[in-house]
Design a protein that fits this description.
The chain folds into 2 domains: 246 residues, Uridine Diphospho-n-acetylenolpyruvylglucosamine Reductase, domain 3; 105 residues, Alpha-Beta Complex (Uridine Diphospho-n-acetylenolpyruvylglucosamine Reductase, domain 1), CATH 3.90.78.10. Helix 6 crosses helix 7. By secondary structure, the protein is α+β, with helices and mostly antiparallel strands. It contains 10 helices and 20 strands. It binds uridine-diphosphate-2(N-acetylglucosaminyl) butyric acid. The site of uridine-diphosphate-2(N-acetylglucosaminyl) butyric acid has 20 residues, from strand 13, helix 9 and strand 19.
Length: 359
């Protein structure tokens, strides 16, 4: 099997479907997804297609995409349960175009296939504010806009001006304004009514100059102060240090970051929980509800640092499930279910995975 994969990977034809973009559309049969998911699952896609421009994507759609299909970014939020019997589509549209740069703001149009942290590094190097708290999050720009990635008190949706997409059904394009994206905690229209219908091609970001830094999360402020001046680069450095201490490096240890979302409960329920568990971390949300810490719930159930076979929770962050090597998607999912069941039993709270499990 491996020999066959190796052969197909290196000797299969790279189809030239568009003379204007010679050898740009890449189509591979029986393609290993090992380097396309941070959990390190060695699943195979029946077909893998990569495009480098909107016109290549419309060409692919015109020729017909075999169903089922799956659009992936960096695979940092995916868990493959089996080999994928359909088409995996991946954007390799890269690059940053500066649309506006005045004294108040900068407007940047970014290809969906750009590595998220390379983009953040670029904005920080320019001295532009906004994305520094979102440093070192694995994944690509398109997926960041779909998932509304967040960390250290910032969610990316607030910096997105609009998202350009192409419909897989008919190749038509549609631009979604920030409001139309319907951003909420780890959620957007691309995960609800538009789920699996569109491919994100470009994301346009609006970064305000002289915006306020957001440093009130955990020990971020003191870490930045240790570094000296308050500037995007020092915030990025502080965030990188905090993340490196708490989260595994996905190039060393397979994981998808936080496996579950933090549950949002009613204020009555949160008050009841606080009476029983005064130590429970709780955070008020804008709509009068309360976000409770999934990591804390998991730790209280005795799962922090616990390992079953090749799967476990990370020793420094209970919300992260890790593949110690060789685990299958099913083993990881079974471990996650056991964690979820014990939290449900002890706290009567249902954890919802943030990770997308692909059958
Ligand atoms: N906590 C524990 N046990 C742990 C870890 C944390 O009790 O093992 C408690 C902490 O004491 C704290 C609370 O849980 O009161 C929150 O912990 P932390 O600040 O580490 O953040 P998190 O809620 O666990 C979220 C995001 C992360 C993001 C961090 C920092 C989700 C699902 N996760 O984690 O995002 O980096 O905040 O902003 O919202 C990701 O999505 O992959 C991710 C890493």
């Amino acid at each position: 099997m491996l020999a066959r994969l190796f052969f197909l990977r290196y000797f299969c034809k790279i189809y030239d479907t568009d003379n204007k973009h010679r050898n740009m559309i890449k189509k591979y049969p029986f393609y290993s997804l090992l380097s396309h998911n941070t959990f390190g699952i060695d699943a195979t896609a029946a077909q893998f297609i990569e495009f480098q421009s909107e016109s290549e994507l419309t060409e692919i759609i015109r020729e017909g995409v075999t169903h089922p299909y799956l659009v992936i970014g960096g695979g940092s939020n995916l868990l493959f349960m089996n080999d994928y019997e359909g088409t995996v589509l991946h954007s390799a549209i890269c690059g940053v175009e500066v649309l506006t740069d005045n004294e108040h703001e900068v407007l940047l149009r970014v290809g969906s296939g750009m590595i998220w942290d390379d983009f953040v590094a670029y904005t920080v190097e320019q001295g532009w504010q906004g994305l520094e708290n979102l440093s070192m999050i694995p994944g690509e720009v398109g997926a960041a806009a779909v998932q509304n990635i967040g960390a250290y008190g910032v969610e990316v949706g607030e910096f997105i001006a609009h998202v350009d997409t192409i419909s897989i059904a008919d190749g038509s394009s549609r631009r979604f304004s920030q409001q139309e994206c319907d951003y909420a905690y780890r959620n957007s229209i691309f995960k609800t009514v538009e789920k699996n219908k569109r491919v994100v091609t470009y994301v346009t970001f609006r970064l305000r100059k002289n915006a306020e830094y957001r440093l009130d999360y955990g020990n971020l402020r003191s870490k930045v102060e240790e570094k000296g001046a308050l500037c995007p680069m020092n915030v990025r450095m502080a965030v990188k240090e905090i993340r490196a201490a708490k989260l595994p490096d996905v190039s060393q240890l397979g994981s998808a970051g936080s496996f579950f979302m933090n549950p949002v409960v009613s204020s009555e329920y949160a008050r009841k929980m606080a009476r029983h568990y005064p130590q429970m971390p709780q955070y008020a949300t804008d709509d009068g509800k309360v976000k409770i810490s999934a990591a804390w719930l998991i730790e209280q159930c005795g799962w922090k640092g616990k390992r079953v076979g090749n799967v476990g929770t990370y020793e420094h962050q209970a919300l992260v499930i890790v593949n110690y090597g060789g685990a299958t998607g099913r083993e990881i999912a079974a471990f996650a279910k056991a964690v979820c069941d014990s939290v449900k039993e002890k706290f009567d709270v249902m954890l919802v995975p943030e990770v997308n499990m692909v059958e």
